[in-house]
Amino acid sequence: QARLVDSGGGLVQAGGSLRLSCTASGRTLSIYNMAWFRQAPGKEREFVAADMRAGGSAHYADSVKGRFSISRDNAANTVYLQMNSLKPEDTAVYYCNAGGGFQSSIYSPSEVWGQGTQVTVSS
């Protein structure tokens, strides 16, 4: 089972950018669908973006389309989330997930999570 380490969060002003990283050990990420979720205080964890394995397509929540981009570097065993034009409503803890998949058009995560990284966007 892969062990995931999330990093790259921080405090940024609205309109700014951050790049999150999710680095795996124990398994190669290339065999997994990879996704990012986020959880704001008092809210449910929600899907942000997914990158499907073996050269499949990327998928995004409507709230981040056109602003966020998911990518992976298989040689580095790392998945990235580039976040541009950040808004205060993007403030949350962001979590990487390995091995989930779509079920009836909804992305269902696996039980393999990173520890999360805090993103705070000030207005």
Brief overview:
The chain is mostly beta strands. It is built from no helices and 13 strands.
Describe the structure.
With 123 residues, this protein is mainly beta. It has strands at 3-7, 10-13, 18-25, 34-39, 46-51, 58-60, 68-73, 78-83, 92-98, 101-103, 106-108, 112-113, 117-122. Strand 5 and strand 6 form a beta hairpin.
List keywords for this structure.
123 residues, mainly beta, 0% helix, 53% strand
State the shape: globular
| Largest sheet, strands/sense/barrel | 7 strands, mixed
Question: Which quaternary structure do these chains form?
Answer: single chain
Number of helices: 0
Distance between the termini: 40 Å
Over all CA atoms, what is the radius of gyration? 13 Å
Helix content: under 10%
Strand portion:
over 45%
Extract low-pLDDT stretches. Answer: none
List the helices and strands in order. Answer: EEEEEEEEEEEEE
Mean pLDDT: 95
Number of separate strands: 13
Provide the structure class: mainly beta
Topology:
Blueprint: E1 3-7, E2 10-13, E3 18-25, E4 34-39, E5 46-51, E6 58-60, E7 68-73, E8 78-83, E9 92-98, E10 101-103, E11 106-108, E12 112-113, E13 117-122
Parallel strand pairs: 2-13
Antiparallel strand pairs: 1-3, 3-8, 4-5, 4-9, 5-6, 7-8, 9-12, 9-13, 10-11
